[in-house]
Amino acid sequence: MPDDDDFLLLNPGPVPLSGNVRRAMDEPMVSHRSAEFEATYERAQQGLDYVFTQSTLDDHSHDSNGTSLILNGTATMGMEMAVANLTDAESDVVALVNGKFGRRFKRIAERHARVTPVEVEWGQSFDLDAVEQAVADADLVTMVHNETSTGVLNPVEAVGELTAEHDALFVVDGVTSIGGDVFRVDDWNVDIAITDAQKALAAPPGISALYVTERAADAADGDSAPFYEDLEWHLRKADDHQTPFTSSVPLFRALAVAVEEIREEGMESRIDRHRRQSQAFRAGFEALGLKRFPDIEPPTSLSNTLTAIELPDEVKAAPEEFFGAITERNVSISGGQAHLGGQIFRVSNMGHLSSAQVLRGIRTVGEALNEVGVECDVESSIETATEILNK
């Protein structure tokens, strides 16, 4: 059990690592073309197959019709690989944008194809009628499932139905949902799903993963893609549990252990734990008198892997004092990004946080608020969150 004086990382990635994951990176080095490495890749790939296809609440395994790939780069590489291999300059891409990472997907697509954005204010819900109109002539649609910049869970299932009706390919950033929340590749008509090691998978940063369906693989054109991101080449090498280029052996080892730990916990239990912890964070912060961010409408919902909270007006005037008080307590949280800087803060419950660590995060925020002159009842907030965590 971590001591209260230990550093507590509550940023929405990277997230804390288990002891076994950390130790995996300290094993003797081997060649990335060795049988030992191929065994590591296979372990990681098998674990990812489970994570990508078992994110259901009924613990039912889908029959896999795709391939899990591990990339020597973070999820931005995966986003570009998906777009670059499935489009060309004559392709029409619809990019859904309601936060920083939806905007990133749009910017990537603009380098490879014609892009029609469907944009709403960061944190707001998409108008599905507007989405349907936009995707009617689309070749490919990009969307972020869990928008890390604002803490909202976007309606991938509903958009997937629209893309299927119009026979468009559907590429989804599941970076901060896959491994911590429900994600149904088959049921939601997702052609490529993307995630990152450093998020809900609870592995070190530096590598990422894709789940590529047969439909996407058939549509891929490696000749039009960047040399390092040739999807066809990666798929061929994955058959031999390899990557086309030099692999980061320690990071692959860590990922293999991390996804095995997910399987040991079980996706149903893991999803339930993440949901309970996010509810505790929200309830605890609300008991401190804070307002959750943003206001949303169905079918959009709040994230179950990270929580965004609006800073009080008194703190917005000098946010560095509040964040400094957090840091003094050996805890790290994140502020807002881009125009939300100084307006919100964000905490993550991705990975393997304990109930005690969630409560410490709430207490730290409450104490920091009191220190900067925002009066709040810390003990009441802890009681409120504890009740939820003990359910």
TrEMBL record:
Aminotransferase class V domain: residues covered: 70-295
Cofactor (UniProt): pyridoxal 5'-phosphate
SUPFAM superfamilies hit by this protein: PLP-dependent transferases
InterPro entries, sorted: Aminotrans_V_dom (IPR000192), PyrdxlP-dep_Trfase (IPR015424), PyrdxlP-dep_Trfase_major (IPR015421), PyrdxlP-dep_Trfase_small (IPR015422), SP_NH2Trfase/AEP_transaminase (IPR024169)
Molecular functions per Gene Ontology: transaminase activity
A Pfam family of this chain: Aminotran_5
Entry keyword set: Aminotransferase, Pyridoxal phosphate, Transferase
Family: Belongs to the class-V pyridoxal-phosphate-dependent aminotransferase family.
Protein name in UniProt: Pyridoxal-phosphate-dependent aminotransferase family protein
Record organism: Halocatena marina
Top-level taxonomy: Archaea, Methanobacteriati, Methanobacteriota, Stenosarchaea group, Halobacteria
